[in-house]
Write a structure and sequence with these properties.
The structure is a homotetramer. The first copy, chain A, has helices at about 5-10, 35-40, 60-75, 85-100, 105-120, 250-290, 300-325, 340-350, 350-365, 365-370, 375, 380-390, 395-410, 410-425, 430-440, 440-450; strands at about 15-20, 20-25, 125, 150-155, 155-170, 175-180, 195-200, 205-210, 230-240, 245-250, 325, 335. The relative contact order of chain A is 0.12. In chain A, about 45% of the residues lie in helices and about 15% in strands. The N and C termini of chain A lie far apart (about 60 Å). Chain A is of the alpha+beta class. In chain A, α6 packs antiparallel against α7 (about 300-325). Chains in contact: A-B, A-C, A-D, B-C, B-D, C-D. At the A-B interface, α6, α7, α8, α13 and α15 of A face α6, α7, α8, α13 and α15 of B.
């Protein structure tokens, strides 16, 4: 394993990164992107021998449980923000192993996997195409580049063009793994492509989202001022990829399978890394009730119970998704039970805003009308702030809790988590679709037919 | 294990049973109570050596899983209606073992347990007192008998008076186990009583509910015409109980603990026996959609997915409640994780009416405007019924499904299941209270304090 | 206006009615159908001069409010069960006026309207075709009779064949009005038919649903033992209809319009007649809480508040649907605002089961485990029943409330109301569709475009 | 009426305003507070004769409707952010008229009202005390100043000390009206105080919330970069108030009544000014679906319908709250029906987060991963942004909609609106309490008793 410093050193490689309209020379030195890079370094614990446990290939339910716990733990260190530098990349590597098994490119996947593991690399995964008009497939778009595609096949490799959105952490990883976003029709072979390239590859342009810009008050935003993840529009402007880094080219059936297999692993990652956030809601709700002096009200108890049930249902289903692991015969790789994984993810996602509302309810309106760090630091104002914001606990403690609640449930970071709950790692509708598809209806319909007297 | 016939034979013992205002001589010969008795006989598989597996004392997670599966299976045979002749009684016996351990009466519990197991007895459990004004405890009631109490302590035993409600299956079991309904104050020693008596004991009067009376059309009510469970107001009219059958007398602390410990086991029983019902909703929903020719509508898919997620969430939490078993050190008895058990039960209960609504939605209005068995049998009417009630499948099949849906989701049996979902084995509020109490808030509050900067 | 007796006399006319497989000679003398007939007679207040106010043609918001209040009041007399003998028929007559205006048959509609009004007739409306496979239209069905259709056009009239389901009150009305169930394609002219016939017309066969059979315990079922509405499969077995009773024949465009126009009026009728039921939930909830001694619990207050908000939201939207009346220019007839009417109906329907659950929660498990009228009447049992079912009020009062709750929220009548909430007068999906369609999106999209800077 | 410029000129008066730890000399010149001041100027339409219509005393349902429409319209100009400079102040003035009628201070209220109306003043209302430990009343707090109180009564007036939170717009109004926050006990006379002072009064210190700081990208935040409302901790540091400005002093009964009467008006104001926001959700949802090319999906239609029903239910109940106006006999002042007003507010508040979730769902993840204004303006990046963010409409249009959605549903302004939905103008629990209290249960309980046979 590399040390945080070794990791950061690796990011200074001339990569093309744009932030707020300007080219960034060194992401580790940029005032905002450096926060993301330092957050990313939480996934590095070296220098030490032996690979990072994130790279362990899961072969059993226990392996999946360990992996889930590892993700939960690293996100706790990330203060509810997933670190994701190895989590998502290994999800993709596991999926690539399974989907390419039996094909010519399996060896390339294995080699790339060893390269990443042995180098303790940080990986981004670019999956979601920009898609254009969503009612049309890749081949139906006005512009064929709206899904990443192969524009040229050469002796030494392929050339790709297009762009992916929502690629997390791209500015501060070593390599980006690119996989298809959806099932494809037979005549959409040029879009059936999966590969990996170093971020600094010519033609790879990262246009960063500055959505989390402005979290500059560490007192008022205890989480988002210190932790950041940056998404990019990841442009592939006629990027050359050598054959040893091409994992899929033209196999439309495997393209769809790869998209789903990745998601299978990635939704377990998702529910694992949501646990610190939902736990924080429970703890924060309880502490806010105490700080406000309202713990004895019936409705307060009711809201806390709801938050507990929410957090613990997500945790229970996440654990069970691991425990019900299945093993892919060909590769021996374990994967979480799809139905249970999607139940966990849907349970998390559909009630997320309800959880936010309850924490907001317990906290009070000060979440958005309170004072900032400069007021707290001001010698003229501090006496008033301390006097008038005391609750059942001193103002310093109450405001610390309110600031955390504002950061998690009201400010931009809250909106970030809310939108992620609805869309990241699959939308609500996608989760419902997978629940429907991964359920075997035969026992239930047989039971109903028997009860109706239609079967003996 | 006894045979069904041996079991039925045992019920002819002069017990005092009242149904619709009349004394019943022989419950196995009564037109309605016999249906309940035959339903109860589904728990008997002998004659054979060896005790019924319901009596196995659980000592591990695996034991609890086996027990849960056994309950699910017997309820499937009961066509969604729990059989309950050994399920609930053993819940009480396990709880009695744990709570009396270390006291003088532990030996009596063991002896009674062996008596039941070796005789393969059917047991009812009478827990819920009639309670009078619920804002008052036993000692505060205008009438002290509104909670079952000891009115006399003699050399050879005690005399009890009072009544329990909601006692299931009492008319067709061998013995009734009586336990307290709630925590008691120190001055409420006379109400801190637990014991067991044969149903035919003098002074025990069973006033049956006839709520499910009238299910006489086997075509229209495929479940409730064939399966029945009868609840009683179980009156103890100065009933004498010999000391060897008295398990608790005057220990108010243990009384409360016994009430909760029983419920701990019994809620796992409850969620286990709800699984065939929620599965039937899923299967029925799918078959009805097919029969009506509406499977391709988006809202239909959405409702089916919701039903699947509902049923499988309850199942997942039930399984995990077993897997997370804890073991009582003193007795070595395993019990399901209280938090997970209550999550399972609450998940089942809070969405039950929502599940009913969705099946009703998929079925159509014919649930309550359709024809009856006599119409189906009528040579004049059959041609019209067959012609006009055909859907995407023949009328015979569609009507069989609609009749099942009407029985499960609209008729009296549906209301029975609905009220049970809200109240049986603990109300919604009781489940929420146990979720709140069985949750350890320290990790979550510590996390929140750390995130807020209040802990290093 | 006719007297109840005059109305009942009119039902003895040889009509072909079948109940539980048997032909019924006289519906006013049949033990069960007579209950429905007597319930129907609540719409008759004569003998007196002047027509029934139900027949008043609405010309203003005030007229619609009066009509809504009239329906609410008659349903209150019906003990939460709508009487419906003039309510639904006039809905159809108003719609027929509007849709046939400007066509040759308008005069027939006017004449039929005067016939009904002046004779103070009771009318059923048969709209819902049996439909067969719902994914197909009338012309696509294996059997063309699955939607009522014209099989012959003669000099003196037409011959129709087919069947309608869910026709309410048919056995005890004078005439049945038949209208199309849905929009039709241009090649479906034979199904574009609307007409009226006396119930006793040859070929009209009424196969009654016996769904509400068995409500024979007046103590335990205070509502359903005294009030009944009967639905029929209404078969038209080559029924001849003279031209003066044919209101639509072959006009597919007007057929769809008639279906919708009727529903526009009928949904206002529906929400008007639901008000006594939802009010009863509120009152019953409050009285049950009191009887059980739980009024001071926070969750009880919360449930009562929810029930109040539910009932009053439905009432508010119903009133406003009238107040926002629109007037059809051609005929001068007023009709309720479609958007508001559908909002009212949807608000009622989508939360109905949630309301039931809350009343059940406040009532307790006795709803389905309590005793019956025979037990209450039994001199041996009464002392126990009185002693042990007392709450914070005497047993007689508490049980009266519990019996009402059981009737409204658990027994067959409860299921009847539940299924009606989901399906009658348009399903949940149909209501949502009409909300979507009757909403003018232009102001909202213009506002959003302005806020987005896309419009100046 | 004054002109916007006249209004702004009036704010340069030496008031003590603190923002981000620094004293602000001139709020109309400060880079952020000036945005709030300019937003406030939307309530000024002069110079012209005649008072602002906001000052019209409502005397009928029509007056309330006009007032509601006026508020809706001014908020539309405010781009979903209420302007509030006259809205809330007149709510307080109406309440003061009603509550002081018949007392000595009524003349002072009238004089102050004329002063404000004739001067076309902007008013803030400071109601919510800081409250300390919420389980205790004013007299029970460790610090008596945690509710604003009279510390001295002099010949010429009173001296007050304490602080209010959540006071909106204080930095840019002319006068602040102070009223009690809750019912008081008899021994809490010193806290029973209502008065008004110019903002620039010595001892009045405004410590501003900078919660909405950072909205500096007009392209990415089309609403919040241009519109702002600022809340203050409003400190009264031994402020002298002359008697003619003291409206209540020591009358604890009227103190509670004033708190509630103000809220009665203010909740109507609240639901009136929420209408543009909920309309924007509907319009935005529809436009986003179109821009993304997903309008034909069933779930999209379902979400749009839900949003329509939500917006139109709030509007309907708001209108009806006016239409059902009641008139205070003593003053002739009309006020909205309390039950209906609270139904409207609760309907708005309880489903607000559900509405946000649906818009987020229709928009997509780009809400929080998209690019900013500097990227859009960059000549190097624009081609990529235009190419890859096109949907079913060009990127410029799609991104304008996404930016609006991000501002309304994800960024800090979204959180501001979310927290306001839960807490402002009364929390969810407060609204439920008022629904419960303003409902007359007698008709419903009488109906239920009749149905139960307990009344003849």
């Amino acid at each position: 394993m590399r040390s945080p410093e070794q990791y950061l050193e690796g990011l200074r490689d001339g990569r093309e990164v744009w932030y707020r309209g300007e080219r960034v020379d060194d992401v580790t030195a940029h005032p905002e992107l450096a926060i993301a890079a330092r957050h990313g370094s939480l996934d590095f614990h070296g220098p030490s021998d032996g690979p990072s446990p994130f790279y362990d290939l899961p072969r059993s339910a226990d392996d999946l449980r360990r992996r889930s716990a590892l993700i939960e733990e690293s996100t706790t260190r990330g203060a509810t923000l997933v670190v994701l530098l190895k989590e998502i990349g290994t999800d993709a590597l596991f999926a690539l192993h399974r989907v390419t098994h039996g094909t010519d490119t399996y060896g390339r996947v294995e080699a790339f996997y060893r390269h990443c593991r042995d180098g303790d690399l940080a990986l981004a995964v670019a999956q979601t195409d920009v898609k254009g008009n969503r009612s049309l497939g890749p081949a139906g778009q006005a512009d064929p580049d709206l899904y990443v595609r192969v524009t040229e096949r050469r002796d030494d490799g392929i050339v790709v063009r297009g762009a992916k959105v929502h690629t997390s952490c791209t500015p501060n990883v070593d390599e980006v793994v690119v996989i298809p976003t959806r099932a494809l029709a037979e005549d959409e072979r040029d879009w059936a492509v999966a590969f990996a390239v170093p971020v600094a590859t010519p033609g790879v342009k990262l246009i960063c989202s500055d959505y989390l810009h402005g979290a500059d008050d560490a007192w008022a935003m205890p989480v988002s001022s210190r932790h950041k993840m940056v998404e990019t529009l990841t442009v592939f402007d006629d990027v050359f990829v050598p054959w040893e880094r091409v994992f899929l080219d033209g196999d439309t059936e495997r393209a769809g399978r790869l998209a789903l297999t990745f998601v299978e692993y990635h939704r377990l990652t998702a529910v694992s890394y949501k646990l610190p956030l939902v736990d924080a809601f429970v703890g924060l709700g309880a502490l806010l009730a105490e700080a406000n002096g309202i713990t004895r009200a019936g409705h307060v108890r009711d809201k806390l119970t709801w938050l507990i049930a929410y957090a613990e249902s997500v945790r229970a289903l996440t654990h069970l998704a691991c425990d019900r692991a299945r093993v892919d015969e060909a590769t021996g790789l374990a994967y979480p039970d799809p139905l249970t994984t999607n139940l966990a993810k849907w349970t998390f996602a559909r009630d997320y805003y309800g959880a936010v509302e309850r924490v907001v309810d317990l906290a009070g309106g000060l979440l958005v009308t309170g004072v900032g760090g400069a007021d707290w630091e001001s010698p003229e104002l501090r006496p008033y702030v301390e006097k008038y914001f005391a609750g059942a606990v001193p103002a310093a403690e109450r405001l610390a809790l309110l600031n955390l609640a504002s950061d998690l449930c009201a400010r931009s970071y809250a909106g970030y988590q809310g939108v992620l709950a609805v869309h990241a790692e699959g939308s609500l509708e996608a989760e419902k679709l997978m629940i429907y598809r991964s359920y075997d209806p035969r026992p239930a319909t047989l039971l109903a037919r028997r009860l109706a007297g239609l079967e003996s």
